[in-house]
Amino acid sequence: MRILVLNVNTTASMTTAIGDSAREVASPGTQIIELTPDFGADSCEGNFESYLAAIAVIDKVVNYPEPFDAVIQAGYGEHGREGLQELLEVPVVDITEAAASTAQFLGHKYSVVTTLDRTVPLIEDRLKLAGLTDRLASVRASGLGVLELESDPQRAIEAIVDQSRHAVQEDKAEVICLGCGGMAELEHQVREATGVPIVDGVRAAVTIAESMVRMGLSTSKVRTYAPPRPKRVIGWPLTRLTEVNAAS
């Protein structure tokens, strides 16, 4: 089984960390192929960057030259999953939905702890669209930018642990979802500090993608995610167009 895991930003070190996290839970025989978009922002922390990332991720997937069995979009609260589902015949799993759906098997209420406060509405909207808000206790922001997870890891741990404790004690969350693809390495510290199950979206998405492939399941194509109607699309795929222009 081959699973593509797409970082939504262009920071290669974060792609590597996401890929390493995915491999830790992948079954024997599952090959994890982590990919970085060819264009876009070095971190996604708002609507503009998220929509840009959606196109960049789609572009990277449609230009991938080898066969694959599933795709994971490894951005929390990001746009684009629906477009991938229209274009692909294989399962597409978004880490936001994967984490939240997994959390509901583990406790009555769950909270998401994410990066900047401005990303909270994006995550809330994604969860609402997915029908996963009935058991959502809260979405809390640590106040850190995405890139600070790498540049200042100790501060990141302290901020995320602090907000996780508030989620458990004040919001009555029984499970915490780590609300960023780059937070996977913090799982152990947050669990130790809070005493509740901690769900990393990347790892949850890998197990869900594997199970769908094993069951022979993929996206329904009869209506919502039917393939795009044939029509002229100018300048697409973007990566291929860029390569042609660079060579000429």
From TrEMBL:
GO molecular function, one term: ATP binding
Catalytic activity reported: a D-5-monosubstituted hydantoin = a L-5-monosubstituted hydantoin; D-5-benzylhydantoin = L-5-benzylhydantoin
Gene3D superfamilies registered for this protein in UniProt: 3.40.50.12500
Catalytic activity, EC: 5.1.99.5
Top EC group: isomerase
Keywords assigned by UniProt, alphabetized: ATP-binding, Nucleotide-binding
Family: Belongs to the HyuE racemase family.
Designated name of the protein: Hydantoin racemase
Species of provenance: Glutamicibacter creatinolyticus
